[in-house]
Amino acid sequence: MKKWSAGLAFILMFSMVLSACSSGSSGSTKDAGASTEDKGSGSKDKVVELKFTTWGELTADSVEKKLADQFNESHPNIKVTFEPVPGDGYATKLTTSLAAGQAPDVFLIGEGDYFKYVDKGVVEPLDDYLKADTSFKTDIFQPDLINMGKINDKLYYLPKDFNPLALWYNKRMFDEAKIPYPNDQWTWDDMITAAKKLTKKDGSKVKEFGFNATKWEYPIYIYLWLNGTDIGNEDGTKAEGFMNSDKTVAALEKYVALTKGADRVSPTPQDTETLGGDSSMFMTDKLAMMITGRWVKGDLDKSDVQYGSALIPTGAGGERASIIAAAGWAMNANGKHKQEAFELMKWLSGTEAQKARSEKGQVLPATVAELDQVKSTEVVDKPVIEMMNYAKKPISMRSANAPIFTEEFNKAMEKILLDKSTVKDALDEAAKNVDSKIQK
Amino acid sequence: MRNSRSERAGYLFILPWFLGLLIFTLGPMLFSLVLSFSKWDIITGIGSIEFVGLDNFKAIFHDELFYQSLKVTFIFALVSVPLYQIASILIALLLNMRTRGMKLFRLIYFMPSVIPAVAVSMMWIMIFNPEYGILNRALGWFGIEGPAWLQDPSYALGALIVMGMWGVGNTIIIYLSGLQGVPEELYEAAQLDGAGPLRRFTSVTVPMISPTIFFNLIMGIIGGFQYFTQAFVMTNGGPLNSTLFYNLYLYNKAFVSFEMGYASALSWILFAIILIFTLIVIRSSSMWVYYNGDDERD
């Protein structure tokens, strides 16, 4: 009797596992059948249901929610649901839902992950949809943003919003030190000279820092570009001779020196961590300059810090570079209603949506006409927008190998910053590790 | 077919729990066992699971970070398990005294265990803050310049171990109940025989609470090897991987780089390690654990 019931339990368990699988698959075939039917009958009587997701935007009055409502009103045959996810859990939620085949039809991806998701084959290329639809042209967008969304000559992402990196400075600290604000002619060395004047010490302890030489990769990439080097080759297949080239080593030695010794002008990453992060240091007049994205503006405006933005200084020979941080809409390659999803993407990236989002000044519009308008009225945003012209693609937007590069590079930087290794040794080792991992 | 009705009723009663075990514990465990022999990048969906035999395990044994995380976890377990057990017993002995206001002390020592680990971690981040933290302020009164506890690779692991002392309330409570189960007459008899306080502790208390020690030791070992939350919240493995606990590395593989097969293999290795250590303790228990009323002690 006992054995018999144990056997029964086992059968029960397996039948449940099986039924769970089969119900999933039968569900999806049914849906697929329905969608082909839709196309045949011109989708008159059946409402197609779509989902889209972003990180953040959790409040009931969020712009995306309103955009979804407006879309539903103008498209009676489509019902779209907006499902926002808190920022921390976004990647996990998205990837697990992609794995389970339950992912939303349209989802938002940050520029650092553009390449990765395309490489995994989960993002649908948009070229055919664009060709078939003459009412929608991508030339309404900033060319840089469209260019970013292109991978291997196919367009995968339509712009939602973007944040070019720029130099942000604390006016009060500049006034106090009686030095002029950053200008367009500034070189990196000019900036460091100013940073030295802005740094204030109490004994051996620095109380106010002139500049934040962060461990965040983007400003480091920009600095490397200004010095004519990069952590990897163009298509991200080689680190030897790039990550550890003489130019990279020399540039990073200079960069790291900003956080070290008696003459330091920058907090170390540990300092920044203990003091609550660079933007809160900036807001409390403990940091005079930082290179970061425009998203910081929201927080700065809430505080009473007086700030300005400027172009990121040039290299010694006048070269200039920046990175655009951006978020783009992607279509789920395994979605069931792709044509409708494309309609939704057009709406979410289109002029109306860009206007709605930029109205409160929270983000810059991705469309040319609207951006020009902002440019003519906004003082603080002018340099930020101008930095777009110098945007380059960091390694994460050039190669699927990027995580290998960044992991090893960050590890090397950590060793260097904690004085556990010289710049040269750490980068040599990192380059070797990257290349051996790529070969696998 | 005796008792078949009541037997069936019994099975019905355990069915909800049993189903939960099957669906949420045994099922996923089986799945992860299969995964540990496969390569699966979770983004590409369930169809892309690819059987790779022992490749994951081979790769793990060449993985520098695997050894680093093992090292961190072993150091933590080796230091923290005895440390927490000894501290708990000593505190439990104090709390077992009959003095006025003892209930208040018991409350104070148990209270930290009620606070969620994440909240505790946030609080300790502030305590450990080298600039504003209360710990370095206090050290400053004695002219000591405290280190950057969580940001210095030579201090971070130690800081986490010290922090753990704060949360031993659960263990204390179990020891306390063990101590209260020691019959008073044994102490009296020992005293009549001329045993001093130390002798009474080693010859009466320790043997009598040895089942409690046994239980706490096993739970402590399992907890030590599975240490995760505090490291995840406070250091995220840094600086320089000095607090990269095994479970944290496993989590990163599974939910940051989405290498589910690799992560599953890691988790089964951890399972084996915990199993071995628990078995060692269980096997050795016959030598030092004394059960009251068990005459066939060998």
Keywords:
heterodimer; A: 440 residues; D-Maltodextrin-Binding Protein, domain 2; five-stranded mixed beta sheet; three-stranded antiparallel beta sheet; 19 helices; 48% helix; globular; B: mainly alpha; 68% helix; 1% strand; SBP (chain A); Sugar ABC transporter substrate-binding protein (chain A)
Write a concise synopsis of the structure shown.
Chain A is an alpha+beta fold and 440 residues long. Helices cover 48% and strands 12% of the residues of chain A. In chain A, the strands form four sheets. In chain A, strands 2-1-3-12-6 form a five-stranded mixed beta sheet. A three-stranded antiparallel beta sheet of chain A has the order 10-7-11.
Record the SSE blueprint.
The complex is a heterodimer of chains A (440) and B (298).
Chain A: H1 2-41, E1 48-53, H2 63-74, E2 78-82, H3 90-99, E3 106-110, H4 114-119, H5 127-132, H6 143-149, E4 150-151, E5 154-155, E6 158-164, E7 166-170, H7 171-177, H8 188-198, E8 200-202, E9 205-208, H9 217-226, H10 246-257, H11 269-274, H12 278-283, E10 289-292, H13 296-302, E11 307-310, E12 324-331, H14 338-349, H15 351-358, H16 368-377, H17 381-387, H18 402-417, H19 423-439
Parallel strand pairs in A: 1-2, 1-3
Antiparallel strand pairs in A: 3-12, 4-5, 6-12, 7-10, 7-11, 8-9
Chain B: H1 4-35, E1 38-39, E2 50-51, H2 55-60, H3 64-95, H4 102-110, H5 117-128, H6 134-141, H7 156-164, H8 169-180, H9 184-192, H10 197-208, H11 210-225, H12 229-234, H13 246-255, H14 260-288
Helix pairs in contact in B: 1-14, 3-7, 3-8, 3-11, 3-13, 8-11, 11-14, 13-14
